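Problem 12. The chain below contains 440 residues. Write out its predicted structure in token notation.
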Amino acid sequence: MSKPSLQNIDISTRYSTITEEEIYTVVTEFGTPLYVVDEQIILDNLSTLETSFNNYNGKTSIAYSLKSNFNPSIIEILNKESILFDLTSLGELYFFEQCRANIDNVLYTSVTEEEDEYYSAMQSGISKFVIGSYNGLINLISASESLNISPKVLVRINPEIDVKADISASSGMGKFGIPLSNSSNDDAFYIINKIFDNNLLQFHGIHFHLGSQISDPSCFIQTLDLLSSLIKQLKSSINDFTISILDIGGGTPVEYTKPVPSPEYIGKTITDKLNEFTNSLDISPTLIVESGRYLSAESSILISRIVNSKSYPDCKFHIIDAGYNLLLDSALMKQEYPIDIITRSQSTTLENIKIGGRLCDTLDTFNISPEKKFPRASINDLVVFRNVGAYSIVFNMPFHCQTKPAILLRRTDHSIDIIREPEKIEDLFNSEGGNLSSKQ
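Solution.
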């Protein structure tokens, strides 16, 4: 493929710090499709998130949600920054341990909350657990008694409010968290009292997570108002009640193709309320702000190549060598990613385009706003999807026997490392049982 050139694209804003020459170089060496992660963007976004909550009167910590991107190199980068990590499975714990990351910085938030899971997590040295059900509490107590370990416990509440977000996590009778008021044992007030009644467990704080891509931070204000009432009740019923941690979850939005509130605006809105909240209750908990998408999404691009193209009266339809197997949110959530074209054409003409992936599925087309126009492109030109660092990579799947592409890391010194080797078709065959069938 001859060297492409960029037309009508501002590299400084559209590719972060990854240059045209670097894109061409990595494509020449590694082919397409190909992920490239920019380490500097991860560090910059971490710094932005930290400073966005500087207005809080108490201590603030950032926790990275490992589920968004569990590549070992990403874990190692963030572990060096001494932040916290939100883990939700023993598989994530295995990755974390293999990276020799600091186990003291783990918050373990299970969904299934099984006794064996808690037992294994405590054996690994995890001391802080978030529970989200009465049954989870019973299982945590049982595992603690078996090991004679005294874990620190946070209770995940569900405020059951409306949240303006791409994905809400606080619906009534929802999957996550414990209602603030309920007629069963799954009630925040009841469960927190049970923790205080137990000799092994140490109540450490309250956790909530309202959703992903939150577009209106007023939901945090509403939740803190509801939480204030709960804490007043707890202070009345429990001697010397205190709260060491308040974990407000994630939700800081990433700008894909539509404007979103800035981290600074969200942080200022929340911390203004938090300062009022803590002063009125005479508490000073450490604030934990979780983030997976915001820390990792903007760091990464997916480079693909146009392999086929056809013309219609009103647009060009390009087929690329990637599909939703590499960007599953494009099919699940109709996510519209920022897209740029690298073309060899010297034409300045812009045109309407559609882009379809290589999968034999009508869902395998990428969402593009009708008013968006792109440089004229041909077969072998490049299509670059931006902001793909969160969830896209962990959702990679082998539909149509598609192998996982390589992932490259652009270090802060601009050197390039391979952080995931491209999967070979032979490895996929064997992982699907091919090595077993050949023996029969």
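Discussion. Residues 110-291 form a domain with the TIM Barrel fold (CATH 3.20.20.10). Students who got a different answer should revisit the alignment rule from Section 12.3.
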